[in-house]
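#struct-help
A.M.: can someone run this one for me? Single chain, 399 residues.
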Amino acid sequence: MKATGIVVEYNPFHNGHLHHARQAKEVSGADAVIAVMSGQFLQRGEPAFADKWARTQMALANGIDLVFELPYVYATAQASDFAKGAIALLDAAGCESFCFGSEQGSIDPFHASYSLLREHRAAYEASIHEAVQTGISYPKALNKAYMELTGSESGFADLTQPNNILGFHYVEAAEKRGSAMKPLTIQRISAGYHDPVDRNSSIASATGIRKAFFEEGSIEEVSAFLPAPSLGVLRAFHAEYGAFGSWERFYPLLRYSILREKPKNLSRFSEVTEGIEHLIYEAAKKETEFDGFIRRIKSKRFTRTRLQRMLTHIYTGFTWEQLRSFEEPSYLRLLGMSETGKNYLNQKKKNIALPLISRAADLADPMGEVDIHASFMYGLGMGSGDMKKEFTTPPCYFG
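D.P.: on it. Structure tokens below:
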């Protein structure tokens, strides 16, 4: 059996994701689609809209064959490390290819951009350092340095676009590890990453869907953008918890997590740097709502995404020391499988390059302990009294 890999968050699984999954299978000629999916906290530094079990159910009900969890260490990291962890897991799972959605829609520009940056790495990094010193954000410094290299030449990936940026890092990660996986991309259709929902379309971004839900207060208001199985899973999740995950819901506990520390102690948490801990502490003292809090600390230097990742690590207690202790993913955590996925594992299990874990009780290493703790903290933020869910929930099965 052949498998193609995709990297996802499914926050939540919408019609655009369904298109991606189907196209990935078609363009790769694969028998199975393997998804590496973020767990309870996401790359933009946010609690997941629904927990990893609900999102796994949505994935399997919509045609995904295997879902593996991207460990917290990578799921909440900047793009290059996020991609490094995800590609390592897809490689270990035996995928022959990986496929990502992009604004570019063609794979050649990504190869061209990778070759360009590899050839001019020293000049590129020097330009980034120089730009950061002027006070602009790191993402803007990256883009400035990249534009200086590419100039007006065509044939390179447009790295101002969010999905192109992630796609570039997937290609880069695969190249650096010498992976035999073939990179593929499909055109992202209709909605852009940050676009609000368009009521005349059946495609909307996950960001737009979440925004519309929180404004309207009803999952039915965004039902047109979701496959029927996703809608059913989200209704069940909301019935269980009475809400969906957001920083607004988690903020009282985040605020406590900040204020229980002295400002200098906040700097020990991952990504907290450059003295921002003092501003975070003072803002938490003054602001009773998350929106006011994040507006008070956001600046040109510190983007909302960068700040939210810091806040995620403060909330979960994830430190610089822990971050620096991890080099590579150490296991494949199985969250769910279809019948096809089960057959794939039975056929390929001797060739899977990492330990295959199906129970939290078997996550007996520091990276796994971080994942388990993150799940506890997510459940706490959602108001769940069941702190055993991580241990009592078996992999989802969709036959």
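A.M.: thanks! Residues 366-381 form the longest helix (16 residues).
D.P.: also worth noting: Residues 107-160 form one domain.
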